[in-house]
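User: I've been trying to design a sequence by hand for this structure and keep getting stuck. Would you show me what you'd pick, starting by listing the structure so we're on the same page?

Assistant: Good idea, let's start from the same input. This is the structure you sent:
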C-alpha cells in the first residue's frame, strides 16, 4: 500500500480539515484523511523511471492524425475524456468534497487527471500541484497501457502476470456483487493497473513477421522505435518497448474501470442494512466496490443487461458497420471505415474515438476558457504560457457537442404516445411511453444535476402554433423547470439519519455527494434485461419507484385539457440543472472569493446557455433514415429538434370539453347549430364533418358519436 506513505506528517490533512470546519453553515466534516481513500491498483510512483504517461501531442498525433483519412486524434481531442481535467464542474465538486471529507479530492484526481495521480501530483488534494500538461486527462498512452487485472479469457499479454505480481497487495481484487450467489463485477473506482513501461496495447492482433491483413495490425515496429522510455531486453540492457494485443480493450470492463464509482470511506454495518463511516484513517475493509456507498453504476447496469449477455440487434441506430450491440465500445466507439494511422490501409473496423455520450455545454465552456480565445472574461488564464490548445481543438470541441447530441442523446430513447383510458375508463388520457435504447439506465452516470423529463404541449383549434397548455415546461431565461406537472427522471442521494446526526447536518436528499450514504430516489429507466434482484445486487435498484422485471420503458399518463385537438410530446435531457450549479456556487469552501471554482463553474454555465436542455426524442417522431440507403451522418436517428409536428387528439362532439361525448353535450351542440354559441372551440367540436362550420350536416355524425361504445 505504497500510497499511504505519501501522506507525510499530515499537514495537508490538517489544513483541509480546518478549512472545512470554518466553512460557514456546512455542518461538521467527516474525519477523513488520505488513508480513507486508498484503492487498489497501480499507485503513485509505480511507473518506471522515464516512462511517464505521454501526452498525445508529444507523440501520438504524429501517426494518428490526418484531417482526411486518420481521424483518431481529431475525434479524441474534442471529447470530454480528453478534457476531464478541464471540466469546471469537477473542480467545483472537488472543492466541496475536500471540505466535507478532507483529502477526498484524491478520488476525483485519480480518474480525471490520471497522469498527475500516477506521477505523484494529486497531493495536495485540491489539485494545486496539477500541471498544465496533466490536463490532457484520459490520454492515448494512459488507456493503451492499461493491464487486464484478471486476465479474463486467459489471453492477456504474457507480461501482465509479472506486472500484477509486482503490485503485491495493491493488485485489484475481483468485485463480487451482493447477489445470492454473488457474481463477478470486475473493477471500478479508478482502480486501474498501468504497465510501468511504455508497452502499448490495443484491440487488434499485432503482426510481427506476417503481413498485416485485417484483423492484424502492423504497428509494433513504429511503437518499438518511438516509445517514450526504455524497456529491458532481458539481459539488463535498454531497448524499445513492444506492442501487444489486449482483449480487454475490446470489452466493457475496460470502461468499467472508471465508470463504476463508489465511496470507499463507507462500508455496510454487520446487519448489512446501512452504510457507515469506516473510521478516521481506515481504508475500506474489503476493497469490494459493492460493499461501499454507490455513487454511479453505469458499468454494472450494463453488466446486468441483455447487452452484456449476448448483445442486442439495434439495427443502424449506433452505426452501420456493426448492428449487434454488446460492449460499451459498440455504442460509444462504433466501428468506422478509416485508416488507423498514417501508415496503414483503410479498413472498416477502426473504433471511433469520439466517445460519444451526453456532454453538452461543458465542451463549449472548455473551448472558451482553455482555447485561443480564452480565458473566460474576469478570470486569469489557466496557464501563464498561453492557451492549452489552439483553433483545431477548439473546433473539435464544438463539433463534439453536436456529435453527442446527434449520435448519442438523439439515439438513446424513443417515445410512443397513445390515447389510453385504462387509468380512467371512458375518458382518454395521453399515455407517454419513454423507451430506453441504451445499455444502461437512462440517464446514467454521475447523478448530481443530470436529469431527463417529458414536456407535453396541447393545442386547441384556435392556434396550432401557441400551446393552450404546457406540462413540464422549461423557461430558457430563468432555467426553471416546472417539475410539478411532469415526470423527471433522476437519482437523488443524501445522508441517512445516523450520519446526519453525527455531522450536525440535515438528513435526507443532499448534493454533498461525498457524504451520500443513502439513495432516496432513483426512477431512471433500466435497460433491456432488467431484473429487480440483479439490480439490487449491484446497489442500483429503483428507489421510491418501481419497474417490473424485463421492463425497459416507463409510462406516464397526462390529463388532456378540454378542447385540445393536437398534442406534441418531447423528451429533454439536461446535463446541469440550475439548482445544482447554484449549489456548487453557494457551497464552495472559499466564500467571498469571486474567483473560487464554484463561482467559476456558475459563470461558465451562465456564459454557455445555462446548460440548455437537449431534445432527445419527439412525438410525432422525426424521419429515421437507413444509413445504408439514405445516408444521414449528422443525425442517424433523425433530428428530434426538427420534429415539430403534432398528433391528432381531437374528440368530435365533445362540446362541453370534458373529454367524453354524452347526453350532456346535446344542449351545447344545439346552441352551436342555432348560432347562439359562437365560441370557436365549441364550433370545432360540433363540426363533425370537418367542413369548418357546424350545421345540419353534422347531426348524423354527432348521433353516431353519442351511440359509440
Amino acid at each position: 500500500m505504497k500510497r499511504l506513505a505519501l501522506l507525510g506528517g499530515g499537514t495537508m490533512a490538517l489544513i483541509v480539515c480546518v478549512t472545512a470546519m470554518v466553512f460557514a453553515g456546512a455542518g461538521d466534516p467527516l474525519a477523513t484523511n488520505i488513508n480513507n481513500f486508498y484503492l487498489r491498483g497501480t499507485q503513485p510512483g509505480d511507473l518506471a523511471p522515464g516512462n511517464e504517461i505521454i501526452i498525445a501531442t508529444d507523440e501520438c498525433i504524429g501517426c494518428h492524425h490526418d484531417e482526411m483519412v486518420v481521424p483518431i486524434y481529431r475525434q479524441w481531442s474534442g471529447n470530454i475524456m480528453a478534457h476531464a481535467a478541464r471540466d469546471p464542474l469537477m473542480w467545483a465538486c472537488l472543492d466541496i468534497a475536500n471540505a466535507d471529507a478532507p483529502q477526498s479530492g484524491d478520488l476525483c484526481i485519480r480518474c480525471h487527471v490520471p497522469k498527475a495521480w500516477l506521477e505523484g501530483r494529486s497531493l495536495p488534494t485540491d489539485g494545486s500541484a496539477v500541471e498544465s500538461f496533466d490536463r490532457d486527462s484520459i490520454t492515448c498512452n494512459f488507456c493503451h497501457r492499461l493491464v487486464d487485472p484478471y486476465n479474463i479469457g486467459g489471453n492477456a499479454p504474457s507480461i501482465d502476470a509479472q506486472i500484477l505480481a509486482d503490485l503485491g497487495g495493491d493488485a485489484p481484487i475481483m468485485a463480487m456483487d451482493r447477489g445470492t450467489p454473488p457474481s463477478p463485477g470486475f473493477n471500478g473506482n479508478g482502480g486501474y493497473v498501468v504497465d510501468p513501461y511504455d508497452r502499448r496495447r490495443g484491440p487488434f492482433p499485432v503482426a510481427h513477421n506476417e503481413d498485416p491483413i485485417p484483423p492484424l495490425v502492423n504497428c509494433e515496429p513504429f511503437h518499438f522505435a518511438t516509445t517514450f522510455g526504455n524497456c529491458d531486453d532481458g539481459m539488463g540492457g535498454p531497448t524499445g518497448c513492444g506492442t501487444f494485443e489486449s482483449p480487454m480493450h475490446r470489452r466493457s470492463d475496460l470502461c468499467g474501470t472508471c465508470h463504476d464509482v463508489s465511496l470507499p470511506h463507507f462500508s455496510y454495518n454487520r446487519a448489512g442494512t446501512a452504510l457507515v463511516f469506516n473510521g478516521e484513517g481506515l481504508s475500506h475493509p474489503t476493497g469490494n466496490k459493492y460493499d461501499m456507498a454507490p455513487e454511479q453504476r453505469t458499468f454494472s447496469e450494463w453488466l446486468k443487461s441483455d447487452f452484456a449477455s449476448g448483445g442486442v440487434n439495434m439495427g443502424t441506430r449506433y452505426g452501420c458497420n456493426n448492428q449487434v450491440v454488446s460492449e460499451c465500445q459498440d455504442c460509444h466507439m462504433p466501428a468506422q471505415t478509416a485508416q488507423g494511422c498514417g501508415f496503414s490501409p483503410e479498413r472498416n473496423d477502426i473504433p471511433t474515438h469520439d466517445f460519444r455520450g451526453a456532454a453538452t455545454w461543458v465542451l463549449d465552456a472548455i473551448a472558451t476558457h482553455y482555447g485561443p480565445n480564452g480565458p473566460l472574461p474576469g478570470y486569469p488564464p489557466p496557464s501563464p504560457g498561453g492557451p492549452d490548445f489552439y483553433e483545431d481543438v477548439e473546433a473539435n470541441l464544438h463539433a463534439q457537442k453536436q456529435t453527442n447530441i446527434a449520435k448519442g442523446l438523439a439515439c438513446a430513447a424513443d417515445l410512443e404516445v397513445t390515447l389510453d383510458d385504462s387509468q380512467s375508463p371512458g375518458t382518454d388520457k395521453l399515455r407517454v411511453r419513454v423507451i430506453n435504447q441504451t445499455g444502461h439506465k437512462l440517464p446514467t452516470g454521475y447523478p448530481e444535476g443530470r436529469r431527463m423529463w417529458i414536456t407535453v404541449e396541447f393545442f386547441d383549434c384556435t392556434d396550432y402554433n401557441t400551446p393552450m397548455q404546457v406540462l413540464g415546461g422549461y423557461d430558457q431565461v430563468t432555467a426553471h423547470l416546472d417539475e410539478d406537472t411532469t415526470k423527471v427522471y433522476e437519482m437523488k442521494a443524501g445522508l441517512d439519519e445516523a450520519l446526519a446526526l453525527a455531522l450536525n447536518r440535515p438528513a435526507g436528499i443532499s448534493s454533498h455527494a461525498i457524504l451520500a450514504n443513502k439513495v432516496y430516489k432513483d426512477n431512471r429507466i433500466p435497460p433491456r434485461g432488467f431484473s429487480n434482484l440483479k439490480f439490487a445486487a449491484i446497489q442500483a435498484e429503483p428507489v421510491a419507484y418501481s419497474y417490473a422485471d424485463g421492463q425497459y420503458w416507463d409510462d406516464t399518463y397526462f390529463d388532456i385539457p378540454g378542447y385540445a385537438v393536437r398534442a406534441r410530446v418531447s423528451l429533454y435531457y439536461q446535463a446541469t440543472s440550475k439548482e445544482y450549479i447554484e449549489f456548487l456556487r453557494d457551497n464552495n469552501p472559499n466564500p467571498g472569493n469571486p474567483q473560487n471554482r464554484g463561482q467559476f463553474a456558475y459563470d461558465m454555465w451562465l456564459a454557455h446557455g445555462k446548460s440548455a436542455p437537449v431534445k432527445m426524442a419527439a412525438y410525432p417522431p422525426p424521419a429515421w433514415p437507413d444509413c445504408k440507403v439514405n445516408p444521414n451522418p449528422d443525425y442517424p436517428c433523425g433530428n428530434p429538434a426538427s420534429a415539430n409536428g403534432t398528433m391528432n387528439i381531437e374528440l368530435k362532439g365533445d362540446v362541453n370539453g370534458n373529454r367524453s361525448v354524452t347526453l350532456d353535450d346535446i344542449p351545447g351542440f344545439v346552441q352551436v347549430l342555432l348560432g347562439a354559441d359562437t365560441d370557436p372551440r365549441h364550433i370545432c367540436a360540433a363540426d363533425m364533418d370537418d367542413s369548418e362550420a357546424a350545421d345540419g350536416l353534422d347531426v348524423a355524425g354527432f348521433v353516431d358519436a353519442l351511440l359509440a361504445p
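That's my pick for every position. To get oriented when you compare it with your attempt: The chain has a mean pLDDT of 92. DSSP finds 20 helices and 28 strands in the chain.
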